Amino acid sequence: MASFVSTLFFQVLLMVSLLHLSNAGRRLTELVEDQSMTFQYHKGTLLSGKISVNLIWYGNFKPTQRAIISDFVSSLSSSPASLNTQSQPSVLTWWKTTDKYYSLSSKNKKPSSLSLQMGKQILDENYSLGKSLTRNQIVQLAAGGDHENAINVVLTAADVTVESFCMDSCGTHGSQGKKSKFAYIWVGNSETQCPGQCAWPFHQPIYGPQNPPLIAPNNDVGMDGMVINLAGLLAATATNPFGNGFYQGPADAPLEAASACPGIYGKGAYPGYAGDLLVDSTTGASFNANGANGRKYLLPALFDPSTSSCSALV
């Protein structure tokens, strides 16, 4: 299971970055100094075709909170409706960076492509497995979604503890199944458990420079933090779904599309500073991407394999 370890915002801010994406850790201090690296393609299959993103809500989420995530997923669609409702810079423009991985994986043949669309939403508001989950139980919940042409996303509420959550991860991605593998993602709401680890820069980090936190674009520190982690995990799932796609480093602790660019959200980022971001003139919230239904989001930089560097929207 490729673990998207997100941030113990680097012992000097490495800790927050570490948990914000991948078991390899988001080594922000190293990457800001030298973003040049080479991603290796391990000849495995990338997700392709029309893929539904199914959301499995575990625990108590308000409808307004669910809308923050579902609008983000809808923003990833390349449908005309989505294209026409997103101002620039957009969530869809951010996602298009993943297309470059498909081009590199398809040398000497017609490039494959991936089209994401909003799938089913499954509510488990009665905590069917309790409020303390193991990683195996996360997989069990993920198996409740579709097993073909789908990414099943398990989202755990703020009052649910998950094995290793806040200790070495804010979320994970992986695959299950023998004959027909399906991809899954888990992301936890860190609002009451470890916002300094998994919701930076919307909360002060537990270590490192204590700059004032930024205002969350959807006025929900926990959910906006979940968007950051979900975004990075979706990029990793697309480009390294079964552990043999694009990554750098060891297979059990890979640097992937987003985890290779820890703590970077805009130009000029450095440890403790997310970068030069856009600011909403009305709310004062910081963001770098416009989404569906007038939403604004903060999304992590992605590693651009064509330039071997981290690419942020702003």
From TrEMBL:
Q: Provide the Gene Ontology terms for cellular component.
A: apoplast
Keywords from UniProt, A to Z, are: Apoplast, Secreted, Signal
- Could you confirm whether the keyword Electron transport appears in this record? no
Its annotated compartments are:
Secreted, Extracellular space, Apoplast
Signal peptide range equals: 1-24
Name the InterPro entries for this protein: EXORDIUM-like (IPR006766)
Main location as per UniProt: secreted
Q: Which family does it belong to?
A: Belongs to the EXORDIUM family.
Spell out the protein name for this chain.
Answer: Protein EXORDIUM-like
Species name:
Protea cynaroides
